[in-house]
Amino acid sequence: MTTDTPTISTGPLVPKRPPLDWVARHWPVLALAASAIMLGAAHAFETFGGLAPCHLCLKQREVYWVAGTVGLIAAILQRTALWPRLRRPALWLLGAIFLYGAGLAAFHAGVEWKWWPGPTTCTGGGLATSDDLVAMLKGAKIAAPMCDKAAWVFLGLSMAGWNALVSLGLAVVSAFSALRKQEA
After folding, report:
1. Where are the domains of the chain?
2. pLDDT of residue 37
3. pLDDT band for position 27 (cuts 50, 70, 90)
4. Which of 69, 71, 146, 170 could form a disulfide with 98 if both were Cys (CB 3.0 to 4.6 A apart)?
């Protein structure tokens, strides 16, 4: 007896990869994107929010410039025969850069909380006034914002505190990606 019931072909079974495998595989590009987003957010707070960066804020931005550069180079290297040998060192380097950024941001947050003193380069005089702008037009220098004053706080954390959490998360993902088994 034959049946005329149509059968549905699902095609070859392709194992689904967990999302974490996808993240690990694409981490250099994602690290570059994360760095660009963090730099964009910092510049947006400065440009549209009027929050001038202090010395430590600028140092935290440098970390993302370095991480973005390493992410870009690693993304390019992914397309070469060198990648299997350079994959783990590149991902560990990204992790170390983000971990350094987390430490720098945590240090800055500690300065804001008055847990320890900040560097002497952070002894600015606060926000610029219109008198400061007139003085600057006449050739005087305007003091940078102080590192021990949080310019913006959300849910009890300053921008430095949030940056410490984000950088620590990026360092963890970098380490996770470096420890993942390389795909064939």
Report:
1. 20-120+148-179
2. 94
3. confident
4. 170
Q: What is the chain's Cα-based Rg?
A: 23
Distance CA 101, CA 112 (A): 16
Q: What is the mean pLDDT of residues 88-102?
A: 96
Would you say residue 35 has pLDDT above 70?
yes
Q: What is the pLDDT of residues 101-158, one digit of tens each?
A: 999 999 989 888 888 887 877 755 555 556 666 766 776 655 567 777 777 777 878 8
Q: What DSSP assignment string belongs to 123-142?
A: ---SS--HHHHHHHHTTPPP
Element (H, E) at 12: none
- The size of the chain, in residues, is 184
> What's the pTM?
0.76
139: left (phi over 0), alpha (psi -120 to 50) or beta: left
Backbone angles phi, psi at 153, to 5 degrees: -130, 135
- Here the tokens at position 136 are 């600057």
The two tokens of residue 147 are: 């590192």
SS3 at position 153:
strand
CA 176 distance to own-chain centroid: 16
Strand, helix or coil for residue 177: helix
Q: CA-CA distance, 17 to 166, in Å (whole number)?
A: 25
Q: What is the DSSP letter of 121?
A: G
